[in-house]
Amino acid sequence: MNGERPSSPPRADTPVLTAGVWLFVVAAGLLMAAARPVHYLLFHTLAELIAISVAISVFTLTWATRQHLHNGYLVIVGAAYATIATIDIFHTLTFKGMNLLPDVSTNHPTQFWLAARFIEAVALCLAPAFIRRRPNFTLATFAFAVPGVLASIAILQGMLPATHVEEVGLTRFKIVGEFVIIGILVLAWLMLARARREFPRRVFGLLSGSVLLAIATEFCFIHYVGFYDFANELGHYFRFVSVVLAYLALVVTGVRRPAELLYGQLISKDEALTATNAELARSEANLKHAQAVAGIGSWHLDIVANRLTWSDQTYRMFAVPPGTPQTFESFASYIHPDDLSAVTQAWNDAIAGRVPYDVVHRILVENKVLWVRERAEIARDTGGQAIAGTGTVQDVTAQRVAELQLADQRRYLEEQVDKRTHDLVLAKDAAETASRAKSVFLANMSHELRTPMNGIMGMTDLALRRATDPKQRDQLGKARDASRHLLGVINDILDISKIEADRLQLEQIDFRLGSVPENVISMLGGRAAEKGLLLTVDIADEVAGLSLRGDPLRLGQVLINLAGNAIKFTERGSIRIRVSAVEQTASHCLLRFDVQDTGIGIPVEDQPRLFSAFEQADSSTTRRFGGTGLGLAISKRLVGLMRGHIGVNSQPGLGSTFWFTARLERARPGEAPRAVDDSPAEQQIKDRHRDARILLVEDEPVNQEVSRSLLEEAGLKVDLAEDGRQAVDMARAGAYDVILMDMQMPHVDGLEATRMIRALSGRQHVPILAMTANAFEEDRQRCMGAGMNDFIAKPVDPDKLFTTLLIWLARG
Q: CA-to-CA distance for 409 and 401, rounded, in angstroms?
């Protein structure tokens, strides 16, 4: 107690401790051996009392050191020994010859023995599961005590089967019980061996030996007949040594080592305290340095005494000599006059507990203005009164100046954004107005151009149908070809206009891929033959029968454009159309189309502008081949809408190969692909639907005559309505198989007339087909939205008209 500290904590002498325990074991064994010749009952009592004493010692030691036990295995085993020792006491008191308890038979000691060994085996089996846990020692003790008490009551009440018969030996129940205990102990040893890395090697050896000796004990107690047999005596020796080994393991791990650790901690606490003081001194120096680097000072205000304490950095920040006494009032004298009231209010609110003290304000230091941020925590007494404040003060001048500059910049940018936004809104409105005007113009142009073209082409087709004179038919045929060429030019101009206005949309229908090149052959085969050219189609086997979903008309338009150009620019030889698959998935196909010719070819320098609007390879006024220069530009846009690419490979004099790709969906299961062309439709109508009633709603006289003549020649009965109002009245008065409805008419237009007809009783399902010069996709959508079933664009192609009529007449 003179203040001197030992240089290291004393350690227990492990060899001496172990030798003492083994000396006790040998002495106890000799005592048991000396008692055996005197009387077996004395031997048995000594053996059991020694084992019981060791078990109680194990329980007591584990209980006393339970706070230090980190290995749950030891907690479970130590807790179980309280119950085991108690039951073993009953086993000893009821042993044959003791005569200490009334109404005791030879079954009682063996039954108590089975109960104690069963609980011991279960504890050893459960213990490995708790190695990394810290079970509650009291709860574990109680958990073993409950079944022990219940088993003891059952034994004393004679509720268990007999275990021993005088002069006969052990019963089947006793022997089977011993084997069950042996099985549990074997399982316990296997689980212990599996967890051997969790124990020091010596402790594992002691525990393992304890379990194995417990197994040997149970084997001995299967082979005796009388209580005083040698097997019984040997079993008690094994039992005694087993408990001692468990005691050694628990003492070494549960008592000595925690005590050494605790004592070592106490011895080294003074050294740790000295090291902590030194570390605190270093931390204080580091804190002061950090405050200087960060520009943060600290302060403490004793509110009751009005005494303000500053750190060195705070003195430097306020340009005050260190150690100068400070009060709240002296601090207030440094605050900028414009901020004094706000700072005082913030402090009073913090003292009252309304808000934390966190304020940014200005201070005046040597005729300079600095910005600082102050934060504090208020300490209060038990009555809630503020007694002190501890806080920090940080120089945020640079940050505040940057924030003010950023705010000015932000205001400037917001003004610019508002101005630009206003300009964009005006530009957007102007663009939308122009777009609407362009859309209206395109719609009007489409209607105004297609309406007379429908009359011209319709009348020409009617005259050609009825003409018999060869010269007249030739002249009419030339007029028809010229009108179709003019319609192609009109369609190209309208298509490029719709593309530029972003108004062109592709149709999505199911179709057979092979029908597209077949239609190209049927349309261009005659032109190729007139020039003596061979026009062929080569479709790869894997795509020949594909059913796809997309816009076959636009796909064919691109292919016809390329093949038509090939025929135009080829004088001799052949044009070959190839179709192949680039990629196929379960839902999509990426197809490649090649149109190869043996024509004049294209110079490399002219190829980049081929796909621009109004451009041709030969742009001079003396070019021989004519054309608008829109076909390839339109084709490029259409291929882009089909998520593909288009290009050309060509050399002058060696021909050209125009190619494009298109990504198309596979046709939906169960839906039959629509044919692109169905030429015998008119004849099928004559054969199957003659005398079907058609209501033709058309206001233009020439188109009335053309359409009516075409329909009547197909054997259909036609009624004419000259506007939408008359159409509604006629639909109300009579039933029609199909109604052909124009869009633009006086009084009531086609869309409103369709809605009114759908509202009539019994007219909800009559097919109403739009037949109009308004040919945009949005016009189709408006017609469908009004209740129409299909859409036929003018000028009317008779084959297209009859094909569409056939579909809806067949459904009716």
A: 12
Contact 299, 311 (CB under 8 A): yes
**Burial letters 109-120, b for 16+ CB under 10 A, else e:** bbbbbbbbbbbb
**Any idea which residue has 């034994």 for tokens?**
155
Q: Are 494 and 442 in contact (CB under 8 A)?
A: yes
Is the CB of residue 473 less than 8 Å from the CB of residue 464?
A: yes
Describe the crossing of helices 631-641 and 470-500 by its angle, rounded to 10 degrees. Answer: 50
The closest of 347, 317, 312 to 329, measured between CA atoms, is 347
Question: Could you count the other beta carbons within 10 Å of the beta carbon of residue 249?
Answer: 25
Cis peptide before 321 (omega within 30 of 0): no
pLDDT value at residue 456: 74
- Tokens 């601090």 label which residue? 331
DSSP helix, strand, coil percent of the chain (3-state; round to 5): 60, 15, 25
Residue 409: Cβ-neighbour burial (10 angstroms; 0-12, 13-18, 19+): exposed
Q: How far is CA 587 from CA 175, 550, 567, 591, in A?
A: 74, 13, 35, 13
CA distance 418 to 486: 51
Is 0.90 surpassed by the pTM of this model? no
Edge-to-edge order in the sheet of strand 790-793: 717-721, 693-697, 738-741, 768-772, 790-793
Can you tell me whether residue 316 is helix, strand or coil?
helix
439 membership: H or E segment, kind and range: helix 397-466
E-strand stretches of 667-767: 693-697, 717-721, 738-741
Distance of CA 788 to CAs 756, 794, 796, Å? Answer: 12, 16, 18
Q: Are strands 169-170 and 588-597 parallel, antiparallel or unpaired?
A: unpaired
The answer to whether the beta carbons of residues 764 and 758 sit under 8 Å apart is yes
d(CA 773, CA 795): 7
Q: Tokens 């005088």 map to which residue?
A: 166
Q: What is the pLDDT of residues 377-401, one digit of tens each?
A: 999 988 889 889 898 888 888 888 8
Contact 518, 511 (CB under 8 A): no
From 113, 114, 92, select the one nearest 101 (Cα to Cα). Answer: 92
Extract the tokens encoding 754.
Answer: 């369709």
The secondary structure of 81-134 as a DSSP string is: HHHHHHHHHHHHHTSTT---SSS--THHHHHHHHHHHHHHHHHHHHGGGGTTS-
Tell me 775's DSSP state: -
Residue in the structure block whose two tokens are 């605050």: 335
User: Quick one: which H or E segment has residue 167?
Assistant: none
Strand spans (E) along 417-503: none
Degrees to nearest 5, angle at CA 353 with 351 and 356 = 85
Strand partners, 394: 296, 373
Does residue 628 register a pLDDT over 80? no
Q: Residues 353-381: pLDDT tens digits? A: 888 999 999 988 888 888 988 988 999 98
SS (H, E, C) 649-680: EECCCCCEEEEEEEEEEECCCCCCCECCCCCC
Average pLDDT over residues 279-285: 66
* N-to-C CA span, the chain: 118
Going by C-alpha positions, the residue among 546, 551, 543, 535 that lies closest to residue 580 is: 543
Which token pair is 166? 């005088």
Question: What's the DSSP call for residue 212?
Answer: H
CA-atom Rg of the chain in angstroms: 54
Cβ–Cβ under 8 Å, residues 347 and 339:
no
The pair of three-digit structure tokens given for residue 646, joined into one six-digit string? 């288009």
Cβ partners under 8 Å of residue 667, min gap 6: 510, 511, 547, 548, 549, 673
d(CA 315, CA 299): 10
Query: How confident is the model at residue 134, as a pLDDT?
Result: 78
